[in-house]
């Protein structure tokens, strides 16, 4: 099953994982243990990068997956193949999460296919590097916030009536929220908003038995950076400034999303995990 939700215009983002060299490592590294058996997860930005790795790991742990993606049909089809190879069901939903109606339709299609939603992973995001704040156009500023934080509000608003006690929401923030980023002013600002959203939404939903947490990755090798305007020089040394001295791989981040979604994290809400290569941050 595949649905195109609304009209989406190509502008080079978020980029194809199939074109990256070397290829990101998305493969789960251990056998599953049924930690998500019988669950249904809707994952935004699940066609590639961290989203694909999360979909693969969730499937190995027993979840069926709704793969929400923006443009890359081939990447989304490959993620679906990966999920199905784990013996789980998958649907692909082509949608711009910055559009409220598209999020509502994505949730409706997920319910139609699976009858429930237990986990919402808000992973979709975009970035546009700029050297100076005056280089950021109003259109870019609005779009970055529309995708990165408005999209999370819209997806949770659509899913909320269908989430029962025991459900989990996991948002993707970033190390840039804590460190700042001189070339990603609008992007890092949205990540600060996401962290505040996570903590506030946790306070709002915890009495209903719904946990809300976040993951703040460091530099991870996904289509986001090479296709998001990073310079060749920056890419050549991407991740080298971390204490570990290299970029992370998506399958080094996905376990944090698994932990926060499953019962292993039953006493955690409003928290942020930091798979960032050893960078020490507060919060």
TrEMBL record:
PANTHER family: NADPH-DEPENDENT ALDEHYDE REDUCTASE 1, CHLOROPLASTIC (PTHR48107:SF16), NADPH-DEPENDENT ALDEHYDE REDUCTASE-LIKE PROTEIN, CHLOROPLASTIC-RELATED (PTHR48107). Pfam families: adh_short_C2. Residues 1-25 are annotated as: Disordered. SUPFAM superfamilies: NAD(P)-binding Rossmann-fold domains. Keywords: Oxidoreductase. GO terms for molecular function: oxidoreductase activity, acting on CH-OH group of donors. Belongs to the short-chain dehydrogenases/reductases (SDR) family. InterPro entries: NAD(P)-bd_dom_sf, Sc_DH/Rdtase_CS, SDR_fam. This is NAD(P)-dependent oxidoreductase. It comes from the Bacteria. It comes from Azorhizobium oxalatiphilum. Residues 8-20 have a biased composition (Basic and acidic residues).
């Amino acid at each position: 099953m595949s649905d195109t939700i609304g009209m989406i215009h190509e502008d080079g983002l978020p980029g194809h994982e199939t074109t990256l060299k070397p290829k990101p490592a998305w493969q789960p590294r251990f056998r599953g243990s049924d930690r998500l058996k019988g669950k249904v997860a809707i994952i935004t930005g699940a066609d590639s990068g961290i989203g694909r790795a999360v979909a693969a790991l969730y499937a190995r742990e027993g979840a069926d997956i709704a793969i929400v993606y923006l443009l890359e049909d081939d990447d989304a089809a490959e993620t679906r193949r990966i999920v199905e190879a784990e013996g789980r069901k998958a649907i692909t939903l082509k949608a711009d999460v910055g559009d409220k109606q598209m999020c509502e339709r994505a949730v409706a299609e997920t319910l139609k296919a699976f009858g429930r939603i237990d986990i919402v992973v808000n992973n979709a995001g975009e970035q546009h590097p700029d050297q100076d704040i005056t280089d950021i156009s109003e259109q870019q500023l609005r779009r970055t916030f529309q995708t990165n934080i408005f999209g999370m509000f819209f997806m949770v608003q659509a899913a909320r009536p269908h989430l029962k006690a025991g459900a989990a929401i996991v948002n993707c923030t970033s190390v840039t929220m804590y460190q700042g980023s001189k070339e990603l002013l609008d992007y890092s600002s949205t990540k600060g908003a996401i962290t505040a959203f996570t903590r506030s939404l946790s306070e709002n939903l915890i009495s209903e038995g719904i946990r809300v947490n976040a993951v703040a990755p460091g530099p991870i090798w996904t289509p986001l950076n090479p296709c998001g305007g990073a310079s060749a020089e920056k890419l050549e040394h991407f991740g080298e400034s971390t204490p570990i001295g290299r970029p992370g791989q998506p399958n080094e981040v996905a376990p944090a999303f698994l932990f926060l979604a499953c019962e292993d994290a039953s006493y955690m809400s409003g928290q942020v995990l930091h798979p960032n290569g050893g960078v020490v941050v507060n919060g």
